[in-house]
Amino acid sequence: MTRFSYFALPLAALALSVSACADDAPEMTAATAEEGARAVSVTDIVLRPMAGSYAASGLLVPREEATVGSELAGYRVADVLFEEGAYVKQGQALARLDPGLLRAKIAQAEANVTQARAQGTQARSEAARVDGLDGTGVLSDEQIQSRRSSAASAEAGVAVAQAQLNDLRAQEGRMVIRAPVSGRILERAVRPGDVSSPGTPMFRIARDGLIELDAEVPEDALARISEGQEAVVALPSGTELAGNVRLVSPRVDPQTKLGRVRVKLPAIDELRAGGYASASFTNSTTPIAAVPEKTVQFEASGPLLTVIGEDNRARRVEVRTGARADGYVAIEDGPPVGTRVALGGGAFLLDGDLVDPQPVEPHEPSSRQATARAQPQDGK
Fold this sequence. Notes:
single chain; Helix Hairpins; conserved putative lor/sdh protein from methanococcus maripaludis s2 fold; six-stranded antiparallel beta barrel
């Protein structure tokens, strides 16, 4: 073997070794990068029916309240016919005033009418005697005109006396206090022997006996409540009633930032005006983009999601959240459905961080909740 051959074989082997190392360099670099990635649990933004609920409380109030009192002043209350809690019909007598004083006034007014008519008859007769005597000189023009004026004044006197009599007879019809509407008497503030006064209420009536909840709702939840929406109202006794939103106030209190919602309830005896009750409003179950609550981070700028891109790089995205249910929170404004987001450890990631995604199965609600959610889908 020559000296050249002796050195050529080791050099060839060295060249092959260097070439092999160069070919494996990309793989080693990728492996090194993969080893530096943080393992992070990820899940997808999914469509879920979010039956979010909003709690509120308030007072039970009549849907429409009628205040009943007397239109007359100075008459003694003779009889009170109903107590609080009684159900009365429209036009039914509630109380009676003593008519003795008014009847005396009516008798006097009738006498005044009779007297005025007699005076009117005499005045017309005297006026009739001077007909045709104008300019004859039998009576002066002044005397003739005086008789005719007296006749006209007497006629007016009859009309005034009759009007006064009619007014007293109208008052006689108001001596009985009647219910202006059908409903349940909430309060009776009159007793026999009281003196009537137009400014003093005698009865308060809940029209048709309907009591509803006047609930105070936070401003942010008020926008998610609409007329006709279902609500569950809980009474202090533990009774729960199904109701519907009848009215959503267009105004929010500038001090408390609370709006008012009226909830229509069935007419039952257990509902008492002035009582306390709480309500739970359930919104629509229309599917909406949602993520597990653990994926949402809260900072000074608002809620955030850590999105994992196709290149396994982290990116923090601001979102607007909505209803919460079964461990999920609705995403009203944010990445589309199907986007991967960090489930655990997202708070420690920065924009551009490389992660090793570890998919996690979505959280499922309890069996009872799952059955309830499956029913609408089966019906499609």
